[in-house]
Amino acid sequence: MTRKVWTRIAATLGVLSLALTGCASGNSAKSGADSNEIRVGLEGTFAPYGYHDESGKLVGFEKEIADALAADLGKTPVYVESPWESLIAGLDNKNYDLVINNLAPTEERKAKYDFTDPYYVSESWAIVREDSGLESEKDLAGKSCAQTASSNYAQDVRNLGGEITPTNGFADSVQLVEQGRADCTVNGDITLSYYLEQHPDAPLKIFKIESAPGVPTAVMINKGNPELLDSLNKSLAELKSSGKLDSIVAKYTPQA
């Protein structure tokens, strides 16, 4: 091979090296920008936890809690919306850093994920049509209840002998009840009281599932990040002690 050919090869390699260096610098800058963000997974359709108002803006008391946590961490929150049934899988895939979506820290979930201290403890209630004849949890045996199949509320229904009609979320569930295509749906006290306040003419009523224990809700993250978990817990403690958490809840749950 001639010296001239070697010279051309060397020049080409030099250009390639500079190009790769530029790419590496670009990736490094992108990583630096990403480090200032914290990605938050939520449904975005679950009022009053996290939903879009009439203007299309994402609002809700869990959204505000996430805003406050991100601010305390010095991060910019980036919200990633996902249907309930794929929400947890998105955390597995690292689509976001945490999930805040009325999640209960069940033993099964805690085996795979870490949870913060609870920020709210909800009670299970059922919503049914006023003309359904259903008055208490004892009436739910053999009845069809519209639920997201993997939720703790679906388990409440199973414990009472009810049958699950699978849905993608509360909005679908309550619509089936109103249409008479399901007998009931069970959900948290905040969710149901808020819904009735927003729909005062809906032919619906609610009653408490007395046998169901209070359900704590917490922020969920992947295991292996103790620093983030500790930081989130410290921020939550500050929100509680300052009264800010209560004011956020009250803003979105006037009847809770």
Reconstruct the topology from this structure.
Elements: H1 3-34, E1 37-42, E2 51-52, E3 58-59, H2 61-73, E4 76-81, H3 84-92, E5 98-99, H4 107-110, E6 113-115, E7 120-122, E8 124-129, E9 144-147, H5 152-159, E10 163-166, H6 170-178, E11 184-188, H7 189-198, E12 204-208, E13 215-217, E14 220-222, H8 226-242, H9 244-252
Parallel strand pairs: 1-4, 1-5, 9-10
Antiparallel strand pairs: 2-3, 5-14, 6-14, 7-13, 8-11, 8-12
Helix pairs in contact: 2-8
InterPro entries: Solute-binding_3/MltF_N (IPR001638)
Organism: Actinobaculum massiliense ACS-171-V-Col2
Signal peptide: 1-24
Note the run of SSEs as H and E: HEEEHEHEHEEEEHEHEHEEEHH
- Tally of discrete structural domains: 2
> Percent of residues in beta strands?
15-25%
Number of strands: 14
Provide the helix percentage.
40-55%
Largest sheet: 5 strands, mixed
Q: By CATH's scheme, which homologous superfamily of the largest domain applies? A: Periplasmic binding protein-like II
